[in-house]
Specification:
Elements (H helix, E strand, L loop, with lengths): L7 H5 L9 H6 L1 H19 L4 H15 L2 H9 L2 H4 L2 H22 L7 E4 L4 E3 L2 E9 L6 E10 L2 E9 L2 E2 H32 L1
Antiparallel strand pairs: 1-3, 2-3, 3-4, 4-5, 5-6
C-alpha cells in the first residue's frame, strides 16, 4: 500500500495510531478523533477484500464522520463559495465527500500491516489543534505528516492535512481553481465525480 504524497486521502490515515496507548487518546479530544478515524479507515480496508467500490462505499461514512467537508469545500472554492446558492454548496460538499472516499479507496488497496503513530504533544493554534503523526510501513521509512483538527460543538473534525509543510487543501484549491472559474460549481461537481469514477 504505497503512500502517494499528493493525495489528501492517503495522507489522512496518518491522523492516528492503531497502536497508540489508550491514555494518549484520552489526553486530548483531537487525538481521540484522529485515532477513531484511523481505526475506522483500517477496518474499512480490511473488510473490503480488495474491492475498490466496496472500500469507497465503506469509506464514505468514515469521511462524513471524521472530516468537516463543508469547511474543506469552502476553502477549496474560495470566494466562489459566497456566490453559490445553498443547493450548489450542498452539491459541492457531496462531490468532495465522494471524491475523498474514492481516492482513499484507490490509495489504500490492501492492508499489509500498516499502522500510524500519533504524537501526544498536540499543539494549539488558535481554535485549531495541530496533530503530528507518522505512517509506519513494513520495510519502509516512516513518513511524517501534520493535521489540523477543529472543534464544532461537541465534535472534533479534521479540516486540513499537511505534507512536508504544504497544505493539502491549498493544493486542491489550486488544482480546481480553473475548473471553477470556467464552469462554476456545476463544472467542479462534474470534475470531482469524474475523478471519483476513475479512482473506483
Amino acid at each position: 500500500m504505497p503512500l502517494k504524497t499528493r493525495s489528501i486521502l492517503a495522507a489522512a490515515v496518518l491522523f492516528a495510531s492503531l497502536n497508540a496507548p489508550a491514555a494518549m487518546a484520552a489526553a486530548d479530544p483531537a487525538v481521540t478523533r484522529a485515532e477513531t478515524f484511523c481505526q475506522s479507515m483500517i477496518e474499512a480496508v480490511r473488510q473490503s477484500n480488495g474491492k475498490a467500490r466496496l472500500r469507497a462505499a465503506k469509506l464514505t461514512s468514515v469521511v462524513e464522520e471524521s472530516l468537516n467537508t463543508r469547511v474543506m469545500a469552502q476553502f477549496v472554492t474560495g470566494a466562489a463559495w459566497e456566490r453559490m446558492s445553498e443547493a450548489e454548496r450542498t452539491a459541492v460538499i457531496g462531490a468532495l465527500t465522494r471524491y475523498s472516499a474514492a481516492r482513499l479507496a484507490q490509495e489504500f488497496d490492501s492492508f499489509t500491516g500498516q499502522s500510524c503513530a500519533v504524537d501526544a504533544a498536540v499543539q494549539t493554534r488558535g481554535v485549531d489543534k495541530l496533530v503530528k503523526s507518522r505512517i509506519l510501513q513494513p520495510g519502509e521509512a516512516p513518513a511524517a505528516l501534520n493535521y489540523r483538527i477543529r472543534e464544532y460543538g461537541a465534535a472534533w473534525k479534521i479540516v486540513d492535512i499537511y505534507y512536508d509543510g504544504v497544505s493539502q487543501l491549498a493544493t486542491e484549491r489550486a488544482d480546481f481553481a480553473a475548473v471553477l472559474r470556467s464552469g462554476g460549481p456545476a463544472a467542479l461537481v462534474r470534475r470531482l465525480d469524474e475523478v471519483s469514477a476513475l479512482a473506483r
